[in-house]
Design a protein that fits this description.
Helix content of chain C: over 70%
Largest interface: A-C, 47 and 47 residues
Strand order of the largest sheet of chain B: 6-7-8-3-9-10
Shape of chain B: globular
Radius of gyration of chain C: 20 Å
Structural class of chain C: mainly alpha
Number of strands of chain C: 0
Strand content of chain B: 15-25%
Structural class of chain B: alpha/beta
Largest sheet of chain B: 6 strands, mixed
Distance between the termini of chain C: 25 Å
Shape of chain C: globular
Number of strands of chain B: 20
Oligomer: heterotrimer
Helix content of chain B: 25-40%
Number of helices of chain C: 14
Distance between the termini of chain B: 28 Å
Largest sheet of chain C: none
Strand content of chain C: under 5%
Number of helices of chain B: 18
Chain lengths: 313, 513, 328
């Protein structure tokens, strides 16, 4: 028993995968016949946008930061895409992503250059984007928002009816994330800055450059996640990604990335996103009212985070 | 070894570990009523940890603490205070954002009593409505001391109270402490300065690597102030602190070829009329290729600012820094590193990534350039790191997180970083602070080695005898100016000390208090 | 030598930097009042009353957030706690008499304190960072609010609703403002001036030094969250008083806005510094802005944009000042 515990301590990712397996097994035992290839396919489909948001959040949390504007950016990019679809897919896509770019640059300037606390900075930009979208929607009442078919395929399509299309996008992002964090100088610097910013400065690193790029990447990933989301729902509204703010942070924390920075990685976030998606699915199966689901969801996230803190102490 | 007073505090077999680091193995201490008891030991011997265990800041893993015969476990410093045990810790226990008066109220100490003690210490004019944040370190310690005394403790613990204290204030502190003893109370006094211990303490307990290795009486030396007796007591304590063999080895001068000082070409580092705020003015010196130049100074004479300016951490207000004949514009440590000037800071935690591996720590400096953000050549990196790690004989047992390494090994990791990255001049700021004697010798041997290969070293050390052991030449800083320059062979402690006090060769250095 | 520097009184620049942030907020508020008068010459007693009434819940949220931030934490569940108090009071008071409604209000405050204390206990025991815990409990309390009242509804006796409206003492001293002053004066000021208040500031400033001075930092943190819970509950009851109903989703606005008010109000997010006056003035300011926009015939939806911009500008100006200081 204690040996098993020691093994899990050494390889926390194993503990996470084990937990995921327990969750899936729990569903199958409670409702035999639920876990089918289609169910798995759907779980992956829904996990992808969360995991992409989580990718950005992982990048900033490794440096000891946090981005609370990701939900607004995702919503904003989705809404801009849908309202500009008439101008052509390319233009709409470029406009949607440029929102991410702009917010990322503003966040980066504040956090990296002016050393504003990430929490406050991204809270402020999140409010700005949210408000700007509300104002923008007043002018767009006339035009009928619609989601381009390409994006619908990206967010909801399945190859052979089984392999979700967004899985491919996620796989590419995951591969880039894993490679960048482990095998590139940029990735090393993210860990290093999160662990000791002063030491990086003394070692000749211009810390602000790294952080600036980091926040831009996070906002861009949020914008991409927004596109996948709106492709899935096929309806752009101004609260599209609101519910994703907590999960985007929670999947990173559960995945073992320290909010103080310097420790963790994207593989944990992937499993964290899957765990949260399966958890949602379990709660859907339970025959309880929506508010109770919400309470249970929060309570389970809190216990998981607490258990993880104990395990790695 | 009982004293004449009754036993007030008895510590036996106390052990404490933090993760993999063992701070105390088996510490023992006996304190009698009405004595000043010195607690001594090298850096990292466990003195401060013992104090924190005694005052309940954290619990001991093993062992027993008895106050006036009763075994007690304090769960917080407040509980210890209620039993009459109060400590003045090394980092002041005053809340930075509260005023001094508020701090006193927080600790439930009457302001009038504090004012009285402050009067005895000669700091009664200090404004009590100022925030602790705005007060400098030495005065903060004195306020902390005033607060401790105002609580009328039976046992007062002073953890290096005299560090960074000017001489006149040190005398006042001593007077107050002696007065406390006269009233029948006891004091545990921690200090590195042998002279202070001999002047003040009745007995001394010596810790080495978390174990109490001996107790010795210093009363004769203290009462008679006889020079020979003081030296004897000192000898005995040093031997216990270091272990007899190491103490002998430490006293041996290093054998090495000295730098001839007459090499051709421009100096590796040349500083001209450097000024920085009130801290530095008109500092000029040259450091030749292959030379080790020592910097000696008392606490706070501008040495920190000097090193920071050369390393690109602070920007000099005036003056010029040249490397290999080229004038430098240093705005960022990266500029200094590019010019081959690299820093090993005193506090290695400033330079290290505690949660990352030895490899990532050593390789960090290679990612300074934008061009290095891309894929890492893992094989080449491993080779480079391995060779530096091997050259420094870094312990590899806990290489996945450098916070698990010992202090000496951590310092080696910082140096290994620069060996791997390459440099021309190593700026070592007190690199051996808090490091055991064995590692210390290794580090000095390495400095010699790099100098022999043509690199230069600028070395500040707070331990004056080391200048003679490790350097070719030395400069002395006093009040931000160079007050002396000499060859290492002439740099005996007395001469260095005179210059460090800003005295010329004819004046006598003040007697150590 | 050194002693001279310590014994000298505050120099003018230092005194400015020490009080600069604290003085900034009243000035900003004054300026915005003047601007409002310039925009809207008829700005009179009625507008002052509606401003005070409209700002009451946010002012309470800002006070709650300020207390938590001062003691070194942050509470992202403020909005949900306000929502819980709002729907709880609205559903309990719906058929109550005026006297009963007052007793019920006290009950809601007690529950609010318990709710806040739960946040604090979870943070202290789990050792998970405040942000994560309160982000999650915010989610949980949000569920609780929905459980109490699924959709907007409930109510309160008209006598209760009238407490905050009008101005009984003087036309420019609206009842809502008096409520605000009483709430802060009765609950926070006694705490602040006691050793307890010092222990909150001490814990936010330096927990180790606080511990050595005889404070239990864990207790202090739980207490701070508990006090925050009370003020959130007052905010929720005030929301019932001003809107007449309970709305389970109405709280969402207050989480972000309370942090905004704290930041604009000059409380350092590092803890240990600041007070509740700045955040309360900032809350009034944040309520005044959308009113001004209406006077100017601008879409009030710009309010949120302006609020976000204001946060970003305030913190960036602070950062820029530090940046310049670091250069010199």
């Amino acid at each position: 028993m204690s040996q098993a515990l020691a093994l899990l301590r050494g390889h926390t990712i194993l503990a996470l995968i084990l937990l995921l397996a327990v969750f899936v097994l729990g569903i199958e035992i409670a409702r035999p016949g639920t876990v089918t290839p289609l169910w798995i396919s759907n779980a992956l489909l829904f996990a992808a946008p969360l995991a992409i948001l989580g990718a950005g959040q992982t990048l900033v949390m490794l440096t000891g930061g946090i981005d609370l504007s990701v939900a607004s950016v995702a919503t904003g990019s989705a809404y801009i895409l849908a309202t500009n679809a008439a101008s052509g897919d390319g233009v709409a896509l470029a406009l949607a992503l440029s929102l991410g770019l702009i917010v990322g640059i503003v966040n980066g300037l504040g956090v990296a250059v002016l050393r504003v606390q990430p929490l406050v900075m991204t809270l402020g930009t999140g409010l700005m984007v949210g408000g700007a979208m509300t104002v923008y929607s007043q002018y767009m009442l006339a035009s009928q928002p619609h989601v381009p078919p390409v994006i619908q395929t990206l967010g909801a399509g399945k190859i052979l009816g089984l392999v979700p299309v967004d899985l491919f996008l996620w796989a590419v992002i995951a591969a880039l994330m894993l490679f960048a964090l482990q095998r590139t100088g940029f990735g090393r610097l993210l860990y290093a800055i999160g662990d000791n910013r002063e030491a990086c400065h003394l070692a000749g690193v211009r810390v602000w450059r790294v952080l600036f790029v980091d926040y831009v990447l996070c906002a861009l990933l949020a914008a991409i996640a927004g596109l996948v989301l709106v492709g899935g729902t096929n309806a752009a509204d101004l609260s599209l990604a609101d519910v994703y703010l907590l999960p985007s942070v929670a999947c990173v924390i559960i995945g073992g990335t320290s909010i103080f920075g310097g420790r963790g990685g994207y593989s944990g976030t992937i499993v964290g996103a899957l765990i949260l998606t399966v958890l949602t699915s379990i709660l859907t199966l339970l025959d309880v009212p929506e508010p109770v689901k919400q309470i249970l969801y929060g309570a389970i996230i809190l216990s998981l985070a607490a258990a993880y803190a104990r395990l790695t102490e | 070894m009982s004293s004449d007073g009754k036993l007030l505090l008895r510590v036996t077999g106390v052990a404490k570990r933090f993760g993999s680091v063992i701070a105390l193995r088996s510490a023992a201490l006996e304190l009698s009523a009405g004595e000043i008891h010195a607690l001594m030991g090298a850096n990292g011997a466990g003195k401060s940890t013992l104090v924190k265990v005694i005052t309940g800041e954290f619990p001991a893993d093993a062992g027993e603490i008895a106050v006036a015969g009763d075994v007690t476990v304090f769960r917080s410093p407040a509980e210890a205070r209620r039993s009459g045990i109060v400590s003045v810790y090394q980092d002041p226990a005053l809340v930075p954002d509260l005023t001094i008066a508020q701090n006193m109220r927080l600790a439930r100490v009457p302001l009038e009593a504090v004012r009285g003690v402050m009067g005895d210490l000669g700091i009664e004019r200090l404004d009590l409505s100022r925030r602790a944040r705005e007060i400098d370190y030495p005065h903060l310690r004195l306020i902390d001391l005033s607060r401790a005394l105002a609580a009328k403790p039976r046992i007062l613990i002073l953890d290096e109270i005299t560090a960074a204290l000017p001489a006149d204030l040190t005398e006042r502190v001593f007077a107050v402490v002696r007065d406390w003893r006269r009233r029948g109370h006891s004091v545990i006094f921690i200090s590195h300065r042998m002279a202070e211990v001999a002047a003040l303490a009745d007995r001394a307990t010596i810790l080495r690597d978390g174990v109490t290795v001996g107790v010795t009486s210093t009363r004769d030396a203290q009462k008679t102030r006889d020079a020979q007796k003081m030296r004897d007591a000192e000898e005995q304590i040093v031997n216990m602190m270091l272990g007899a063999e190491v103490a002998k080895a430490a006293a041996e001068p290093a054998q090495r070829p000295r730098h001839d000082g007459a090499r051709q070409g421009p100096p590796a580092l040349e500083v001209r009329d450097l000024a920085y705020g009130h801290a530095l003015s008109g500092v000029s010196f040259r450091l030749g290729a292959g030379e080790i130049l020592g910097v000696a100074a008392l606490e706070g004479q501008g040495q920190q600012e000097l090193f920071d300016c050369i390393a690109g951490i602070r920007r000099a207000a005036a003056g010029e820094i040249r490397a290999n004949g080229r004038a430098l514009e240093l705005r960022h440590p990266a500029d200094a590193i590019r010019a081959g000037l690299v820093l090993v800071p005193a506090n290695r935690l400033h330079a290290l990534l505690p949660q990352r591996s030895v490899r990532e720590n050593v390789a960090l400096a290679s990612f300074g350039r934008l061009g290095a953000w891309g894929p890492i050549a893992m094989g080449a990196e491993r080779k480079r790191v391995e060779s530096a790690v091997e050259r420094l004989q870094i312990d590899r047992r806990a290489s996945s997180e450098v916070r698990r390494l010992s202090g000496g090994n951590q310092q080696k990791v910082v140096i290994a970083r620069w060996l791997a990255a390459g440099f021309r001049t190593l700026l070592c700021f007190d690199p051996t602070r808090g490091i055991d004697i064995g590692t210390k010798r290794q580090i000095y041997a390495l400095l010699r080695e790099v100098a022999a290969q043509g690199a230069s070293v600028l070395l500040f050390t707070s331990e004056l005898p080391e200048i003679r052991l490790a350097c070719d030449r030395a400069i002395v800083l006093f009040a931000g100016r160079i007050s002396g320059e000499m060859q290492a062979s002439e740099a005996d402690e007395a001469r260095l000390l005179r210059a460090a006090h800003g005295l010329t060769a004819h004046e006598r250095a003040p007697e150590p208090a | 030598m050194r002693a001279a520097g310590v014994l000298r009184g505050d120099s003018i620049p230092r005194s400015l930097s020490r009080h600069g942030r604290a003085a900034g907020m009243p000035l900003l508020f004054l300026a915005s009042i003047l601007a409002t008068l310039a925009i809207h010459r008829d700005f009179g007693a009625f507008d002052v009353q509606s401003l005070a009434l409209g700002a009451l819940p946010l002012a309470m949220a800002a006070t709650a957030q300020a207390i938590v931030v001062i003691s070194g934490g942050i509470d992202l569940s403020v909005g949900s706690m306000i929502a819980v108090a709002n729907v709880l009071s609205a559903s309990l008071m719906q058929h109550a008499s005026f006297r009963q409604s007052l007793a019920l209000a006290v009950l809601v405050l007690v529950l609010g304190a318990a709710q806040g204390a739960i946040n604090g206990v979870l943070i202290v025991l789990s050792r998970i960072p405040d942000i994560v815990v309160t982000l999650t409990t915010g989610f949980i309390w949000g569920g609780v609010a929905l459980l109490i009242l699924e959709r907007p509804g409930g109510g309160a006796p008209s006598g209760f609703l009238d407490i905050g409206a009008g101005a009984d003492l003087s036309p420019f001293l609206p009842n809502a403002l008096i409520l605000l002053i009483v709430a802060v004066g009765v609950i926070w000021l006694p705490v602040r001036s006691s050793r307890l208040g010092l222990s909150l500031y001490a814990t936010g400033s330096d927990p180790v030094a606080a511990f050595r001075s005889g404070v239990d930092p864990r207790l202090a943190r739980i207490l701070a969250y508990g006090l925050g819970g009370i003020f959130c509950a007052i905010g929720g009851v005030a929301l019932t008083m001003t809107t007449g109903i309970g709305a389970p989703l109405a709280g969402a606005y207050y989480t972000l806005s309370s942090v905004a008010a704290v930041v604009i109000g000059g409380v350092s997010l590092n803890g240990g510094r600041g007070g509740v006056l700045g955040p309360i003035l900032a809350a009034l300011l944040l309520t005044l802005l959308p009113m001004d926009l209406i006077f100017l015939n601008i879409d009030p939806n710009y309010g949120q944009v302006i609020q976000g911009t204001l946060i970003v500008l305030v913190v960036m100006v602070g950062g820029f000042a530090a940046f310049l200081q670091g250069r010199s």
